[in-house]
Write a structure and sequence with these properties.
130 residues, alpha/beta, Rossmann fold, five-stranded parallel sheet, globular
Length: 130
C-alpha cells in the first residue's frame, strides 16, 4: 500500500505526515511525500533548496518510526492539485492525505483550493485534516 502526503512544511502538512505515519504502521504501507512547485529557474534556487531540505526533514521523521519513505519534489508546470493527482495516478497511490486551510468561498474562487481539486479528481480516497 502507498500513502501520498502533500507536504509544504506547514503545520497542517506536519499533521498530515503524522497521520500518514500512524496509518502506515497499521497498514504496513509506504509513505510518499511530495512537494510541488509550478516552475523553478535560476532565480528560485533558494526555494528549491528549501523545499529539498523540508522533504529531507519529513523523510527523517517517517523513517525514524520505521516506515519506508520516498520524497519527491515535483516541478512540472502544473498547479499543486493537478501535480498531486497526476503523481497519485502515475504511482498507483492507494490514499492521499492533505492538510486544508480554512478559506472563505470567495477566497477559494479567487485563489483556488489544492485540497478541493485533489478531493474531486483523485483516483483514490483522500483524507483531509484541518
Amino acid at each position: 500500500m502507498k500513502i501520498l502526503v502533500g507536504y509544504d512544511g506547514s503545520r497542517m502538512a506536519e499533521d498530515a505526515l503524522k497521520l500518514a505515519i500512524k496509518r502506515a504502521l497499521v497498514l504496513d504501507a509506504r509513505v510518499l511525500v511530495a512537494t510541488t512547485m509550478p516552475k523553478a529557474d535560476n532565480s528560485q534556487l533558494d526555494e528549491v533548496n528549501e523545499a529539498e531540505g523540508s522533504l529531507a526533514y519529513a523523510k527523517s521523521l517517517v523513517e525514524k518510526r520505521g516506515v519506508p519513505c520516498e520524497t519527491h519534489l515535483l516541478i512540472r508546470g502544473l498547479s499543486p492539485g493537478e501535480d498531486l493527482v497526476l503523481f497519485a495516478r502515475e504511482n498507483q497511490v492507494d490514499e492521499i492525505i492533505v492538510g486544508i486551510r480554512r478559506r472563505s468561498k470567495v477566497g477559494k474562487i479567487i485563489m483556488g483550493s489544492t485540497a478541493q481539486y485533489v478531493i474531486l479528481k483523485a483516483p483514490c480516497p483522500v483524507v483531509t485534516l484541518k
